[in-house]
Every structure is written in C-alpha cells, then in structure tokens.
Inverse folding.
C-alpha cells in the first residue's frame, strides 16, 4: 500500500474522511448505474469515469477492489420523486417494441461507451430484473414495521427511521414541494417500494408479489443489489449529485429499516460507510438533455473527430466535485493535451530496446477484468497485485510518485495528478525504463491508456468527411512538391482545394500534425 492516507469526501457527513475499510485490505464499492431506456449522454458517463478513477485509486493504494455497477431495466419513473411512468415502459410504448429489446440495445450501447472511455469492468454488472425475487424478500422483511399499502402500491413510511433525509440535508416538510402527492400517503416523502399494476392494465414487466402483481420501486433495487452482493455495511456508494437528494436518502431509509433503524450519526447505519457524489457536467444550450435532437452522446464526439479519451481527459482535468462546463473548445484543448502526452510517451518508448510496460494491461489485470461489453463476470478475482506495489523506489522519480500519490489520495485530485505526470514526462537525464515504469503506474490510475495509444489512433475521421485519408495525403504530397519548387501559387491552390473539403492544412504544427479534418 502506498503511503499517503486516502481521504475521501463523504456526502453523509459533508467532510473529508480518512478511508477505513470495513474488511481490512478490501474495498467494496457500489455505483448507481444507468437506466437503459435511451443512450447515455456524456454527463452520465462522467459519473462512471469518476467511479472508475475511485476504483483505480483504491487498487493503486493496495486494496482488493470489488466494484458493482447496476443496470436499471425496470422501475425508474420519469420523475425521481416517485411519480410519472416507468421510463422503460414509456419508451417501449412509444417505439412499439419489447422492453427487453430496448434494455438489451441500450445496455450494449452503454457498455460500448464504458469500453471507449477505458472504464474498467466491475466485478458484477447487477441487472435489476434478475434480482426481483430478492427485492420481494427484502420488502417482505421490512413491510410490517415500515410500510403500508395503498391502491397504487406498497409505500415506505419515512417517519419509521431516524434522520430521514440527512444525506440531502432536507427535512421531510421542506421536501414536500418536490414530491407529487399520492392520495393516502402518510408523509410527503413516503415512496413506493412496490408499484401495483393498475386494475385492467398489463405491464410488459410485472411480477407476482404479496401486494399484487406489479414491479419494484427504483430505490428498492439498489438497496437489495448493493446489500446482497457486497453485504451491509459496505465501503463506498457512488452516484451523481442528483441522487444525493432523493434516490440515496430513500435507499438509506430502506437500509436502516433492514439493518437497524438507528440514526445516521453512525454512518455505517446507512448501509455504506461513505457516500460519494460527482457533480454535473453542464452545457449551456441544453444539448445534454436526451429529449433534444442532437444530444451529447459519446458517439457524437467521435463522429465529430474527437477521440473518446479526450473526453476522459476533460473529466480528469476538473475535480469530480466541481461542476464542469462542456464546450467544444475545452474538448479540443483536452485532445491536444492527450496528443502531446502520447507523443512524448512514444518518444520515450523509442529509447527503449524492449517493449515498454503497459499501463492499461496493468490496470486491467488489477481487477481481473475482461473485455468491456461482457455481461456479469462471476469469476472475479480482486487484485492482490495492485499497481501501487510496483512503483519504482529511490532516485529522483520517487518524489514525483509521492506527489502523485498525495494528489490522488486527496479526494481524487486528478487535475494535480495530471500535472505530476507532465512533470515526470519532462524530466531530463532519468533512465527511460524507470521513467516509463513510473508513468505506467500513474496511468494505471488515470486510465488514459497513454502507454498503449499510438498518435495515429488519436486522429479520428469526422463522419461528415467525404475525402479519404489517402486522397488527403496525395494532395499534401503534391503541395510539398510545389513548395519545394517554390511554386507558392500552386501550393496555395492545393491548400484551398483541401479547405473546400473540410481539411485544414497545419503548417508548423508544434505536434507535427500536417492536417486535420474539421467538424
Ligand atoms: P440515469 O441513467 O439517469 O440514472 O443516470 C446515470 C448516472 O448519471 C447517475 O449517477 C446520475 O446521477 C448521473 N448524471 C446524470 N446527469 C448527469 C450530468 N449532467 N453530469 C454528471 N452526472 C450525471
Ligand atoms: Zn441506485
């Protein structure tokens, strides 16, 4: 284990706390996953980049990581506060398709983004519909003391547990405005843990239960899957900051009902010791909304010629608890930084006789993860050989590794960690092998694949481009000949010819790129 104490911001106590694992040497983490009724937008993916950096940091610090991310394929209503329609049922109706097909399609799309962003495979993708019997058992065990039945379902009475809403710092009365009234609810914040199918209706997804045919509530899913797989209390529960307001307080209330009903001044009574939330990625013109036509999917960035890891870089340059504003200029700057790093690492690799260590290989093997896109991997063997143990020790590099360690241990300060990476890259008169080993150890946390990427891979072809790379290269070659012959008129004409097809010629580009395709 590396030296700096790992400090993480716990939303429950609103303070930085030194990480104390429940099981010595282990870290068990649950992340709220996507509702698979549509493609994820890049804001959603920020939540998983954050959870991935957290997992990689825990591995780097020497903990055996067990990470679970769920896939919500039932139960999430159009309004988090327990109102509206089931998002999955709604989309299925609109498209006249089966919910199962919709869930399968968007789960695959989400996994493709996970892979493109170098997010490691969790130990388990827990799929909500596979846990419905366990959800019914959980609900049965708390129903008598904590729930009551209405025509529309089984409701959780939030007054039956201590400190309801502490995570959100909201009192039940203050919360009233945000919750749609359901006739007969005892408290405004009470929520359905089982939703009965209305009389005369048939849902595509419904199950028998002691409270009639119906479907589980969204909050119930996460309590059941996290508790069953990781055991209460586990170490860390993550999600986007919106979940701090309703979803996680409701999960916590259920967990209290299940385990103890006691107050939250002892964080473990909430089911997890630490609750962590990433802030939002925002975009001024509203393109983050999935309802707008061209919404910001990772594929849109790729179609416009931005490598997906430029988006990961953009996330890492900000602190996960700060709001991050998306702009194409910002993404372009992140791509330039990525290119610069890849070129510098490439030059370093050329100085080595043998193949260099691979950061990504180290990072993947750290958690026994396989190729992204696989479904549940049950043969997970957590790491007992984390990257942190292989840090080169002694010499000039050690001080930089200590600073890197201090940065990521300071509530995942990736922005500072990136600058340390840059400083190591710029070090003069250090053995290339030693330098690459240090860079590999750092990249195992950053997850940018810096040791594996080739500069040519970073140039993506925008989807709208009609001219091929070979055609561009042919014109560039003719232009070089014209310039060599000092025929500047011909050279300018060729540049204009390329410009007309969206190709910008980059004379004197410091990174050595000769041209780029605009979007
Ligand atoms: P959902 O699929 O809506 O349940 O969201 C998946 C994850 O993305 C959750 O952890 C949300 O809190 C998170 N999230 C939603 N919108 C954003 C955003 N704009 N920026 C960052 N995280 C977000
Ligand atoms: Zn959840």
């Amino acid at each position: 284990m590396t030296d700096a104490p790992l400090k993480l911001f716990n939303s429950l106590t609103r303070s930085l706390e030194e990480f104390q694992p429940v099981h010595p040497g282990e870290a068990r983490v649950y992340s709220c996953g996507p509702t698979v009724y549509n493609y994820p937008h890049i804001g959603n993916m920020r939540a998983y980049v954050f959870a991935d950096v957290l997992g990689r940091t825990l591995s780097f610090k020497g903990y055996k990581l067990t990470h679970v991310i769920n896939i919500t394929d039932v139960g999430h209503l159009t309004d988090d506060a327990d109102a509206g329609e089931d998002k999955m049922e709604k989309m299925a109706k609109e498209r006249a398709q089966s919910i199962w097909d919709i869930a399968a399609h968007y789960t695959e799309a989400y996994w493709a983004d996970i892979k493109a962003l170098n997010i490691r495979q969790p130990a388990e993708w827990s799929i909500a519909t596979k846990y419905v019997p366990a959800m019914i058992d959980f609900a049965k065990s708390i129903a008598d003391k904590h729930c009551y039945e209405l025509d529309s379902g089984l409701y959780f009475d939030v007054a039956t547990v201590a400190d309801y809403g502490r995570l959100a710092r909201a009192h039940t009365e203050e919360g009233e405005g945000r919750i749609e009234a359901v006739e007969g609810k005892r408290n405004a914040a009470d929520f359905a843990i089982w939703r009965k199918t209305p009389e005369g209706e048939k849902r595509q997804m419904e199950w028998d239960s002691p409270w009639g045919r119906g479907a589980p509530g969204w909050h119930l899913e996460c309590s059941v899957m996290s508790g069953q797989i990781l055991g209460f209390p586990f170490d860390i529960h993550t999600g986007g900051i919106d979940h701090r307001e309703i979803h996680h307080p409701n999960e916590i209330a259920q967990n209290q009902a299940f385990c103890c009903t006691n107050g939250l001044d002892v964080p473990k009574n909430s089911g997890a010791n630490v609750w962590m939330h990433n802030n939002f990625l925002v975009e001024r013109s509203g393109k983050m909304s999935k309802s707008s036509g061209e919404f910001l999917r990772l594929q849109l960035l790729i179609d416009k010629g931005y490598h997906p890891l430029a988006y990961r870089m953009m996330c890492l340059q900000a602190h996960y608890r700060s709001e991050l504003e998306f702009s194409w200029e910002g993404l372009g700057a992140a791509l330039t930084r990525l290119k610069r790093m890849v070129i510098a690492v490439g030059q370093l690799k050329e100085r080595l006789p043998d193949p260099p260590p691979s950061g990504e290989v180290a990072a993947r093997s750290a958690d026994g993860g396989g190729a992204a896109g696989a479904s549940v991997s049950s043969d997970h063997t957590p790491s007992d050989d984390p990257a942190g143990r292989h840090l080169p020790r002694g010499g000039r590099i050690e001080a930089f590794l200590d600073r890197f360690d201090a940065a990521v241990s300071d509530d995942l300060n990736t922005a500072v960690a990136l600058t340390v990476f840059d400083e190591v890259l710029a070090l003069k008169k250090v053995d290339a092998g030693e330098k690459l080993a240090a860079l590999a150890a750092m990249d195992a946390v950053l997850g940018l694949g810096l040791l594996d990427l080739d500069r040519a891979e970073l140039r993506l072809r925008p989807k709208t481009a009609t001219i091929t790379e070979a055609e561009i290269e042919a014109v560039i070659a003719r232009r070089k000949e014209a310039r060599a012959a000092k025929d500047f008129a011909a050279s300018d004409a060729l540049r204009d010819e390329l410009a007309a097809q969206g190709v910008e010629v980059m004379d004197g580009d410091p990174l050595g790129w000769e041209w780029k395709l605009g979007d």
Notes: The longest strand covers residues 64-71. The CA atoms of residues 124 and 378 lie 7 Å apart. Confidence is low (pLDDT under 50) at residues 172-177, 360-389. The pocket of adenosine monophosphate (ligand 1) is lined by residues 32, 34-35, 43-44, 46-47, 239-240, 242-243, 278, 280-281, 288 (CB under 6 Å).
